[in-house]
Amino acid sequence: MEVSFDLDICIHVAECLRGEPNVFKLQRRPWVLPDEGDADVVAAVIERCPSGALQYRRFDGGPQESHTSGTTVTPMRDGPLLVVGEIQVTHEDGTVETLPRASLCRCGDSKVKPFCDNSHLTSGFRAPGVKFKIHLSPVRLELDKPMAKALDPRAAS
Ligand code: FES
Q1: How many CB atoms lie within 10 A of CB 133?
Q2: Which of 46, 114, 116, 135 lies 20 to 30 A from 99 at CA?
């Protein structure tokens, strides 16, 4: 299994750190070691990553992530739109990126639009939606303060 991670779109929900702590370890390098866990479990944990920052490709014959039944959009209360499906994002330079999951900004304050960067937490954005349970973790020690990207040890050095 190959696992990729994009820190720029991570919103620090930390499903990975809680879901499979042997595979995802914040202080280890590399911080993701897919072979330390069961492939089915690692895939299930990654598919719970709401931002799409984590993705995987399996080489063991196991199923790849797929969303043939369509696309779902769930507004997170006071936060982004959580989208699951085949999401094609066209960047300014014309390149098209396809993601299986994404957290899309609806407060207007994100600096990485169309993705959420958690700016809604400090801008006081309020909007109806599904209450999303945030569990505290090393990347989110307080509910309204995810780790700043500059402090995240997962950033490439
Ligand atoms: S909704 Fe999160 S930054 Fe806009």
Answers
A1: 6
A2: 135
